[in-house]
Amino acid sequence: MSAKKILLIAGDFVEDYEIMVPFQALTMVGHTVHAVCPKKKAGESIRTAVHDFEGDQTYTEKRGHNFTLNADFAAIRPEDYDALVLPGGRSPEYLRLDGRVMEIIRHFAEKNKPIAAICHGLQILAPAGALKGKKATAYPAVGPEVTLGGGTYVDVPVDQAVADGNLVTAPAWPAHPQWLAKFLEVLGTKITL
């Protein structure tokens, strides 16, 4: 396996597990992960939110941790990266309004580079045109955006993931084992025991 350079884009109130777990897991297996946020630099932090499934009609939300960014958004050159990770939470709803974020997403989609998106992260992919012709899953409330973005929404249990070519998606953090395993496969990462 050759280590990959992975870009992770997030913002304030990103879902806590959906940024922490992939950042740590992908780093643990030897990949370089640069976590960035528009208008922020390396060393600055973003706030996270913990979303849980407690029997209500939708998820509950609690304050999470501070997550320290390790790269400057303004210095990002998408051509320098092999893959992209988009966590969910509340940040995708406003990150998709950032023109530079849309340019970056389009680069990864047009170059057919591996993209992993989870939960509300697909809200960033849809307006960038990155879902056209793709099968994808997301948090169910984001399903209509997948369809409007030209993708085919696949309804799967909350602990499952969907891979379609370079795109790996999941409905929420309970799918981390499946989502990350499928993403590692797309990346060409082999783990042997």
CATH class membership: Alpha Beta
Distance between the termini: 15 Å
- Shape type: globular
- Mean pLDDT rating: 96
Q: Considering DSSP H and I runs of 4 or more, what fraction of the residues is helical?
A: 25-40%
Q: Name the strands of the widest sheet in spatial order.
A: 3-1-6-7-11-10
Keywords:
alpha/beta, six-stranded mixed beta sheet, Rossmann fold, globular, three-stranded mixed beta sheet
Describe the model.
The structure is a single chain. By secondary structure, this protein is an alpha/beta fold. The protein has a single domain, classed as Rossmann fold (3-Layer(aba) Sandwich), CATH 3.40.50. It is built from six helices and eleven strands. The chain has a six-stranded mixed β-sheet with strand order 3-1-6-7-11-10, sandwiched between helices. A three-stranded mixed β-sheet has the order 2-4-5, covered by helices on one side. β10 and β11 form a beta hairpin. The longest helix is centred in the N-terminal third of the chain and has 13 residues. The two termini are 15 Å apart.
In short:
With 193 residues, the chain is α/β, with parallel strands linked by helices. Helices cover 26% and strands 25% of the residues.
Write the layout of secondary structure elements.
Elements lengths: L4 E5 L4 E2 H13 L3 E5 L8 E8 L7 E9 L14 E4 L5 H4 L3 H12 L4 E4 L3 H4 L9 E2 L6 H6 L3 E2 L8 E3 L2 E4 L5 H12 L6
Parallel strand pairs: 1-3, 1-6, 2-4, 6-7, 7-11, 8-9
Antiparallel strand pairs: 4-5, 10-11
